[in-house]
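Morning F.,

Quick status update on the modeling queue. The single chain you submitted on Monday has been processed. Sequence for confirmation:
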Amino acid sequence: MKDEHHQQPAEEVEGGERDLPSSIKVGMVGVGGGAEEQKMKKRSNEDVRHSMASAMPLIVWTARPDGEVDYYNQRWFDYTGLTVEQTRGRGWLSVLHPDDRQMCLKRWREAVRAGKPYEIEYRFRRTDGVYRWYLGRALPVRDQQQRIISWLGTDTDIDDQKRSEEQLGVRARQQAAVAELGQYALRGMELPDLFEKALLMVSQALNVAYSSLSELLDDGTIQVHIRDRKGTTYQTVKEWGTSQAAYTLSLKEPVIVDDLRIERRFSVPSEVIDEYGLVGSVSIVVEGHPDPYAVLIVHTREARVFTQDDIYFLQAVANVLTAAIERKRTEAQLAQALQSLQAANEQLEHSNKAQNDFVSIISHEFRSTLTGIQGFSELIRDEDFSAREIREYANDINTDARRLSRMINELLDLNRMRSGRMAFNPERIDLNEIIRDVVERTRPNAFGHQIYLYLDARLPLCSGDRDKLTQVVTNLLNNAIKYSPRGGDIALYSELEGEQAHVWVQDHGVGIPTNALEQIFEPYTRIASGETRFVEGTGIGLTIVRQIMQIHGGKVWAESTSGEGSTFHFTLPSCCTA
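Structure tokens below.
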């Protein structure tokens, strides 16, 4: 209000009000009549104006032309609790809010200097110490020569309106924050960045000192994202069963805490109070399906009443986070499904190609074998050979027939294994004996190769199907011979490892590329190279070997270096020394 110039003394009137200035007293002087009559009319008019000013539902004041306030109505004194003496001079400044004083004095001086209407919003302290907003207005009163003879002012209580506007502003800012967070989520912001953005917006919108998001992890711990005045930090908490987050999850509704220092519903870490100086808080569940995703918590350093709008705002933020988390998880599931579909398509393409290659290979193998059988049989039929020559051709026919029989049997075995119809006849077998028998039958056909045995005499009897294990050893030894076209040494080893037998076959042949060591056990697979293109085979032998070992509960694998040779291993459990 109004100026820092000293007020002139004035008489008090009945009721505690000060006398209105004569410059604004309308109709004080009548027309005609004696001096005594005019004085009585003047006093009557003043009484009427005093009564009118006191009856008005606002503060009324007047000031001299220089801006010095010289009158307040009774409502001023009732509101402020000041006396007339306390209001004199700069007394009225004692109840004006400190933040409003500079602007109030500046605008009042400008209005007085320019003779223009005065208007301002400021806060005055009530008798109970509460500041309320007022709209201050003043107009200059002029005489017939347009000279300012006084100022007439009013102060209207607008606190309720002001607070409503402020609440509307807060609500608008909160809604804008939720909308902005939603835009970040829709644009696919990564969840850690979105969590940090959400905590920043919550802290700003609610003007709180500390906020956190406790993210529930699959291992039962929580990842706490913390936002304070210094920024965002993270920490993993393993023991949180008695925390505010756990209590909020159990309650499944917002939890409001007036004073953490006396909280008994859940445990409050001492550093929350001692180090951070936090007092109040409110927590909201970030819902999820089937289980909640997180708990959003805000803290204050002073006593504060959280409004229902604050709760709605936090719930809206939590809803945005829920939608973002579910969207990210759905995207991850779709990406995984797409990746699996692509892998399945690639596998299908590989299988189709392998089957096509297999059909080509098996057709070639069958055609070559049948051509040999047909050719030798026609020679015997059409030519006159000696008995010795006939025996030689018959032996070639028998070799091709056995080769054809072996290929057919391999195809039948693979089909039976895939359909689960492969017969399995376990018995107590001597694995070293099986290895020796296979080597003795194979050695006559291993031209240019030396086969050595390094068998562990400690190897006990094992449980297994004799015929199937014989097929495994035979296949591995034949492969070692076939893929060592330049000859060389081949060694077979056996060793007892705990309660399992470990057998491996080592050659010094062409070797296998490292990236194909797993692929060679897939059906119809053959590794093409210049040195192996003439090697006979269907490409399903190693697939059968793996199937047999899986039926026995064992494993089979290969180690190799291209150009230096290969080693094929298998293990057989169920071997004991008892």
